[in-house]
Every structure is written in C-alpha cells, then in structure tokens.
C-alpha cells in the first residue's frame, strides 16, 4: 500500500474526537473500579465500628487526605504521561508532598512520645496485613487504569505504569482507611506508604510489557 | 519560542480534523507525511528502506492515538514524541546496539523540512490488511479502498451499518498491532 492510499484510508475515518478524552478515559476507569474496591473492602474487612465517632478525630481526616492527595497528584501525572510530548514537570512535587508531610508528622509524633512507646506507634496492631490489604483493595483500580492506559499513548511506559499504581494505591488507601483502626502518624508513614508503594512497583514492572502501542 | 509557520498551519488543520472535518484532516495527514518522511530520512540514513514503512507506521499511530492530543499543546511536541517512540521501537527491533549511537536526539524540528517524494514502502500494509478477520477487513476494503458507501458495504457484506463503521475503526487499531507483530 502506498502512503497516499493510507492517508486516504485514515482521512476517511475522521470521526470527531471528544475533548479531554484522556482525563475522561482515566476517570471512567476509576469510576467503574472504585465501587468494586469499596465492595471488596466492605465484604472482606468491613467498616470500622466507630466510624461515626472517628469522624471527629483529626487523624482520621489526615489519613483520608493523605490518600486523596496522592491520588489527585497521581491523576495529574498519569494523564500527562499518557499524552505524547507533554512533560510532567511540577506534578511530581504534588506526588511527593503528601509523603513528605506524613513523614514530617510522624517524626514530630515520634519525638514527642516517650521512647518506650515509639515502637508501638510505628507497628500498631495490624502492621502485618496493612500494606498487603491496601494493595489488594487498590487492585481493581490498578487493573482498570492499566486498561485505560492501553488505549492512550504513554511514551514512557514504566513511569506511566508506576503513576497508575500511585493513583490506584492512593485511592485504595482512602477506601481502606474506612476500615483501618490505626490512627498514629508513624504507622501511616510506614505502612500506608508501603501499601501504596506495592502497586507503584508493580506498575513500573508491568508497564513496559503491557503498555506498548 | 516563536511558532513556525508549519506548526501553525498543521495545528489549524489538525484541530479542524479532530472536530470531524475530513478534508482538513486529509490535508493535515498529507503534509504530516511529507514532514515525517524528511525528518525520519535524516535520522535513519543507515536504513533508507525503512523510512517509508516508519512514515506509514507513524501516520497510523497518530491517527489511532489522535484523542491524546489537546489543542493547547504544541503539535510539534506531540508529533515528535510519537515519531521518536516509533523510531526507538524500530531501532530496537532491527538493529540492536550498533544503531543506537545517533538518531535519538532531542532536536524537535519535525516540521523543519518536507519531502513529498514517497519511496515504496517495503512492508506490505495491504498484505497485513488481508490477515485481519473479515469483520475488520471487509469494511476497510470496501469503504476505503474501493470507495463504496457505508450503506453499500453493509448490504454487500450483510453487516449492519454501525458494524461497518466500528469495523473500520477497530480494524485500523488491529492493523497497528499487526505491524508491531510483524517485526
């Protein structure tokens, strides 16, 4: 086939394209998968019994905002990475900021606590399962986002996969926070960050294989 | 950075094409093909035979991924990123290490030159097209290459009109996948 024939063939397929198609596609993937994640959290773990009461504690909101901040920043990063020739630039800072803030908060909490209580602040009661559970809760969103990215055009697939992992992990941490009994900043700084890091690493590994176009 | 004349002209055509203006889109693709040919020829001087194949592959990729372009972004950057991505892909597949000592610079001048003289493509896109399943192949062949209308194609193939339209669209994506598989 000659190139001018190909051009004619492509030009005839000039259906109008919706604006903001990238954000829309990523948004649809999240909107489909978030209820699945929430349903899994409800069935497998259940909402914490004192949820209403917990809503009056600042740390409950700090924990939710931590996940929300990561998810929001990661959304910006993913949608930029999904568009060829668009630089991510300052959006990386948005991704680092929630982590740095929670680490700062954890440091303050640890330094102001008596030495013998510090280990308990970090380990809590559920450290064995926390990171894995966050990763599992974020899995439906992770899969949906990779599917969405497959229909877009990431030219740096490892980074795009990792950012999709951060988005799924951040949103998954928010969902898991409705169950999780732990409220200490040092605990969140270690185990929530680890739970989000799992899909990030998975995305960086899967991205180059899956996101070719 | 001042926008080049080519950037402005192509951007205008592409934006109209994205809104559904087929004539503007065709004109955009024709000019884009010339620019890509010149740009790639300069970078693939070791493989003159590959240039036209890569031009076609880039055109198909840009068509299939055109929803990832937003009008507020410089078109040069978008085109360059896709051409570069496809070029790296080709070099990895064809040449391994020895090729990697040059062409992947960050020079964004995709629209600096234009070459309208197409050499023959080595890869036979029509041959790859023939390997697609009927539901993709027939709509493309009848509506695009033989110039039948959607209604005529639907009658001829027994498919519904919407299936013909979807068939063209999905078929072009499947074709891009075949190209990757043919390396």
From TrEMBL, chain B:
<dbReference type="InterPro" id="IPR013249">
    <property type="entry name" value="RNA_pol_sigma70_r4_t2"/>
</dbReference>
<dbReference type="InterPro" id="IPR036388">
    <property type="entry name" value="WH-like_DNA-bd_sf"/>
</dbReference>
<keyword id="KW-0805">Transcription regulation</keyword>
<dbReference type="InterPro" id="IPR007627">
    <property type="entry name" value="RNA_pol_sigma70_r2"/>
</dbReference>
<dbReference type="InterPro" id="IPR013324">
    <property type="entry name" value="RNA_pol_sigma_r3/r4-like"/>
</dbReference>
<keyword id="KW-0731">Sigma factor</keyword>
<keyword id="KW-0804">Transcription</keyword>
<keyword id="KW-0238">DNA-binding</keyword>
<dbReference type="InterPro" id="IPR013325">
    <property type="entry name" value="RNA_pol_sigma_r2"/>
</dbReference>
<protein>
    <submittedName>
        <fullName>Sigma-70 family RNA polymerase sigma factor</fullName>
    </submittedName>
</protein>
<dbReference type="InterPro" id="IPR014284">
    <property type="entry name" value="RNA_pol_sigma-70_dom"/>
</dbReference>
<dbReference type="InterPro" id="IPR039425">
    <property type="entry name" value="RNA_pol_sigma-70-like"/>
</dbReference>
<feature type="domain" description="RNA polymerase sigma factor 70 region 4 type 2">
    <location>
        <begin position="123"/>
        <end position="175"/>
    </location>
</feature>
<comment type="similarity">
    <text>Belongs to the sigma-70 factor family. ECF subfamily.</text>
</comment>
<feature type="domain" description="RNA polymerase sigma-70 region 2">
    <location>
        <begin position="39"/>
        <end position="95"/>
    </location>
</feature>
<dbReference type="Pfam" id="PF04542">
    <property type="entry name" value="Sigma70_r2"/>
</dbReference>
<dbReference type="Pfam" id="PF08281">
    <property type="entry name" value="Sigma70_r4_2"/>
</dbReference>
């Amino acid at each position: 086939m000659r190139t001018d024939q190909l051009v004619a063939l492509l030009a005839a397929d000039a259906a109008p394209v919706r604006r903001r198609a990238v954000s829309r596609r990523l948004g649809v993937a999240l909107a489909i998968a978030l209820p699945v994640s929430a349903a899994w959290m409800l069935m497998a773990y259940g909402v914490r019994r004192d949820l209403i009461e917990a809503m009056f504690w600042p740390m409950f909101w700090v924990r939710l905002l931590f996940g929300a901040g990561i998810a929001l920043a990661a959304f910006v990063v993913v949608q930029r990475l999904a568009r060829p020739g668009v630089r991510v630039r300052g959006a990386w800072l948005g991704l680092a900021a929630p982590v740095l803030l929670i680490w700062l908060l954890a440091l303050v909490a640890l330094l102001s606590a008596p030495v013998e209580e510090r280990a308990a602040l970090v380990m809590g009661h559920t450290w064995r399962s926390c990171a894995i559970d966050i990763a599992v809760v974020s899995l439906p969103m992770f899969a949906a986002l990779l599917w969405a990215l497959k229909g877009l055009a990431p030219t740096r697939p490892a980074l795009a996969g990792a950012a999709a992992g951060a988005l799924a992990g951040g949103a998954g941490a928010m969902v898991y926070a409705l169950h999780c009994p732990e409220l200490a900043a040092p605990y969140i700084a270690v185990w929530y960050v680890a739970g989000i890091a799992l899909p990030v690493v998975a995305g960086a590994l899967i991205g180059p294989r899956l996101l070719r176009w | 950075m001042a926008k080049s004349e080519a950037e402005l002209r192509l951007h205008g055509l592409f934006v109209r094409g994205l809104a559904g203006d087929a004539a503007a889109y065709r004109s955009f693709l024709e000019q884009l093909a010339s620019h890509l040919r010149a740009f790639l020829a300069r970078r693939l001087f070791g493989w003159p035979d590959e240039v036209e194949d890569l031009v076609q592959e880039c055109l198909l990729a840009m068509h299939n991924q055109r929803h990832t372009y937003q009008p507020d972004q410089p078109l040069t950057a978008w085109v360059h990123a896709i051409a570069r991505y496809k070029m790296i892909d080709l070099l990895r597949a064809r040449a391994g290490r020895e090729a990697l000592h040059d062409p992947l610079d960050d020079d964004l001048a995709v629209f600096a030159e234009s070459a309208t003289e197409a050499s023959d493509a080595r890869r036979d896109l029509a041959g790859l097209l023939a390997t697609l399943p009927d539901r993709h192949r027939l709509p493309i062949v009848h509506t695009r290459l033989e110039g039948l209308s959607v209604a005529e194609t639907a009658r001829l193939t027994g498919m519904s009109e919407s299936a013909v339209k979807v068939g063209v669209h999905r078929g072009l994506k499947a074709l891009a996948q075949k190209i990757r598989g043919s390396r």
